[in-house]
Design brief:
The complex is a heterodimer. Chain A has a domain of 212 residues. Chain A is mainly alpha-helical. Chain A contains 12 helices and no strands. Chain B folds into 2 domains: 237 residues, P-loop containing nucleotide triphosphate hydrolases (Rossmann fold), CATH 3.40.50; 254 residues, P-loop containing nucleotide triphosphate hydrolases (Rossmann fold, 3-Layer(aba) Sandwich). In chain B, α11 crosses α12 and α11 packs parallel to α13. Chain B is globular, with a radius of gyration of 24 Å. The chains are: A mainly alpha, B alpha/beta. The interface between A and B is medium-sized, with 24 and 28 residues.
Chain lengths: 305, 522
């Protein structure tokens, strides 16, 4: 029982950065923009988040720094792909490479430093409940924020007019423009939101997951987040399931090694990607019609004026 | 429907006026000092060839494009539009030629996006049902657009505009994609809107329609206004002359064309679609002899694309015998193998399917000619031969271009289409399958292409033409068959194929009910 509780707690901790980053990317892709720079925005968010927290001693300020760093990097992406109509795939890849470099630069002085990890919720009577207490009522703020974010995003996408316009732009930007919607402006806000989420997801790692900064500590989580969006077929609800599933796989892989299960760890690490490929194949074979991916995803839009 | 005072009472006053409206793109004048006046209760036609500046003008009136010079008056007052919402706020609505719809959203969501969102989604949905009933334009608000027929999609556009209770509607080639019966239903709606005191600007190049429906017509050519006239007092020929600037040559078929042996035979071809929105081809059979032109009519999206793919070898049939080219079973053969049997193919989409847009014409000639035209020796390209093909096509089909061997994308639609058709005809095919040969092509080029097809048939080739333009098929085809929901009707002799019969077939009405799960329109 205690082992199970420990595993669940570990899974939640491992899944939260995936969920945060993937939520942001989901919204970006729903607006028709493919930002492959999630990994880069995350790692910069991690470095700046750690720097902020180290300087002020506040997790909150650290998280804020992470978000701002992600937004700043996403603005570079927005300038290139929306302002200058550069290819989104190439720009996204460049953004990741840039992010890894910048984070190394910022974080170089912080390697070896330690900070206090993010405080966890404590409600007397509830948090001390056996088994469920720590899982439900003893998490750090990031976990609750990530879940609130996904609920808020579902509500936004399907219940508000702005969400409808955003989905419309992702489906057909030419029509949206013809009806008079500011395609590029809305896409820019979506990209900034995605950057903020990625930055927060990155900041989570040194602020709550491990109390120190290591260059390259995102370790491919940005790529998993991208795969997750596809895995979830662009639906927020499925994103939660996917994030926890992928988080669970990465934790179980550690335990499996501890138990001496004879599966190579590399194969386990590759599972999220394999699962994404399987889901993509299933989607394309079983869907009855309509496209699941936003139809304008990754295409450049230049309004005629 | 309209506020009192603006409609019937002042029907003599001008609702919208443009004065010297000019739009410049670099040194190119898309609109050159255009004056046009539209009154309430008037259906005003805007005529012109592709590239005459019609779309630019209406986009300016709808606030999508800012004019370079000139001004617009709305009910006598100067109007400057920051965007389409400004136009909508004044009572200007637009139905786009290429529908501004979102395939993966529902009908109600699509309508909501065209309104300015001042009412709740629920209230909007209720009003949508009310308006669609009121005008006899039935719609199911909960269906997603990709599931709907073209006619239904247009209904969404029209209902969306009507829900704004506009004083002025712009319709951009609304009948281009409709069956004759669907077009008639549309005209009833338009007449009703006119009787309610609204003004309509009606873009079309179908002159018969304009003569029948419109009170006034303004003709544009090369960005300039040529004249404003009363279409009922003009003839179709005189209107065409104003649009084109010269007489259009009538195409002429050779008087004594001989049909020979069957060149293209399709035996009971059935093919499941390979994409979610595709059409299932069902039991298609036909026989086409040398020297004969068979026309395939039908509303877009009824299986024409799938049929073209099956004939050209872009998709293979399971049974080789389903497609026979010049006596050889070819259903299992690749495109190249079919070309070697003497077949040639001209797809509908010029850029991206018919040609690679960023490649030169000579390279594009090679792409279809490599198998059978001596353009490749031992794996090396014979550049002289590819260039010679470009030169021959240029000379024979009057392809106008800036230099000898430009990129395909730099040619105008009509000239590129002449090149593509020429490229295939110069290979001396015995079977030519051509889809929408003159879609979006100016009248001069269209006449050249149609004549070329007739000449090729006279030389003994079998030609299969898919087209949505019934007049075109009537001009060149010997027999016409209609495609509907993946079925192909029995071909009719062109002389027997009047518009009404074809229209019924295009709407699926003449088929037995069990073949028609959900008939379009009607």
């Amino acid at each position: 029982m205690e082992l199970l509780e420990a595993i669940i707690l570990a899974v939640l901790a491992a899944s939260t950065p995936l969920l945060l980053a993937a939520s942001g990317e989901l919204l970006v892709e729903r607006a028709g923009v493919l930002n492959l720079g999630v990994e880069g925005m995350m790692i910069v968010g991690a470095a700046c988040g750690f720097a902020g927290a180290w300087a002020t001693g506040s997790t909150f300020i650290g998280a804020l720094c992470g978000i701002l760093a992600g937004v700043a990097l996403s603005l570079v992406f927005a300038l290139m792909t929306l302002g200058l109509a550069v290819n989104q795939v190439a720009t996204g890849l460049a953004l990741t490479i840039l992010g890894i470099g910048v984070s190394g630069l910022i974080g170089a002085g912080f390697v070896g430093e330690r900070i206090a990890t993010a405080p966890r919720l404590y409600i007397p009577g509830l948090t001390t409940l056996p088994f469920v207490g720590k899982i439900l009522f003893g998490e750090d703020a990031f976990v609750y924020v990530s879940l609130a974010l996904i609920i808020g995003m579902s509500w936004f996408l399907y219940r508000t007019r702005a969400g409808l316009v955003l989905r419309a732009i992702g489906d057909n930007h030419v029509s949206a423009h013809a009806l008079g919607y500011p395609v590029l402006k809305i896409r820019m806000f979506a990209v900034m939101f995605g950057g903020g989420c990625a930055g927060l997801a990155g900041a989570y790692l040194p602020l709550a997951y491990t109390p120190f900064f290591v260059p390259g500590m995102t370790a491919g989580r940005g790529w998993i987040a991208l795969a997750l969006v596809v895995f979830a077929s662009w639906l927020p609800g499925r994103l939660v399931i996917g994030a926890y599933l992928f988080g669970a796989v990465s934790i179980l892989q550690l335990h499996a090694q501890g138990w001496g299960v004879g599966v190579p760890s590399q194969l386990m690490s590759a599972l999220p990607y394999l699962a994404t490929v399987v889901v993509l194949v299933l989607i394309s074979r079983t869907r009855s019609g309509g496209s699941t991916a936003p139809a304008a995803l990754g295409t450049v839009f230049v309004p005629d004026r | 429907m309209l506020d009192s005072g603006s409609g019937h009472a002042r029907s003599g006053t001008v609702l919208l006026q443009t004065i010297g409206l000019t739009k410049r793109y670099g040194s190119f004048l898309a609109n050159d000092a255009i004056d046009i006046a539209i009154r309430p209760q008037e259906i005003h036609a805007l005529l012109g060839e592709n590239g005459a500046g019609k779309s630019t003008l209406v986009k300016t009136i709808y606030g999508l494009i800012q004019p370079s010079e000139g001004e617009m008056l709305w009910q006598g007052e100067k109007m400057v539009l920051a965007g389409p919402h400004d136009a909508r706020a004044r009572g200007i609505g637009m139905v786009f030629q290429h529908f501004s719809l979102f395939d993966n959203l529902t009908v109600a969501e699509n309508v909501a996006l065209g309104l300015d969102g001042k009412e709740s989604f629920k209230a909007m949905s209720a009003r949508l049902e009310q308006v669609s009933q009121q005008y006899g334009l039935p719609l199911d608000p909960k269906r997603e657009v990709w599931q709907l027929s073209v006619g239904e999609r247009q209904r969404i556009e029209i209902v969306r505009v009507l829900m704004q209770n506009p004083k002025f509607l712009i319709l951009d080639e609304p009948t281009a994609v409709l069956t004759p019966q669907e077009a008639d239903q549309l005209f009833v709606v338009l007449e009703r809107l006119k009787s309610e005191g609204r003004a309509i600007l009606y873009i079309s190049h179908k002159l018969d329609e304009v003569k029948r429906l419109c009170d006034t017509a303004t003709v544009l050519r090369g960005g300039k206004k040529i004249s404003t006239c009363l279409p009922r007092e003009e003839t179709a020929a005189s209107l065409a002359r104003m649009m084109v600037g010269t007489e259009i040559k009538q195409v002429k078929a050779a008087a004594n064309r001989q049909t020979t042996v069957p060149r293209l035979v399709v035996n009971d071809l059935s093919l499941a679609p390979d994409e979610p929105h595709g059409v299932h081809l069902k039991n298609i059979s036909l026989e086409l002899k040398g020297g004969e032109i068979l026309g395939i009519a039908g509303v877009a999206g009824n299986g024409q694309d799938e049929f073209f793919a099956a004939l050209s070898g872009e998709r293979l049939a399971k049974d080789p015998g389903t497609i026979v080219i010049d006596g050889h079973a070819a259903g299992h053969l690749s495109i190249t193998a079919r070309r070697k049997l003497g077949a040639a193919f001209v797809p509908e989409e010029r850029l991206g399917h018919g040609t690679a847009p960023r490649m030169r014409l000579s390279e594009n000639a090679l792409l279809t000619g490599h198998a059978a035209s001596g353009m490749v020796h031992n794996g090396f390209i014979n550049t002289a031969a590819t260039l010679a093909t470009v030169d021959r096509a240029t000379a024979s089909f009057d392809v106008r271009k800036a230099k000898r061997d430009p990129e395909a994308a730099s040619l105008s639609g009509g000239n590129l289409q002449k090149f593509i058709v020429g490229r295939e005809i110069l290979r001396n095919p015995i079977v030519l399958v051509v889809s929408q040969p003159t879609w979006g092509v100016d009248a001069g080029a269209a006449a050249v292409i149609r004549q070329a097809l007739l000449d090729l048939a006279a030389a003994g080739a079998a030609i299969l033409v898919t087209s949505q333009d019934l007049d075109e098929l009537a001009d060149i085809a010997d027999r016409i068959a209609v495609m509907f929901h993946g079925h192909l009707s029995e071909p009719l002799m062109t002389a027997d194929a009047d518009r009404e019969t074809l229209g019924l077939l295009m709407g699926g009405s003449a088929l037995t009910p069990k073949d028609v799960p959900d008939a379009v329109g009607a």
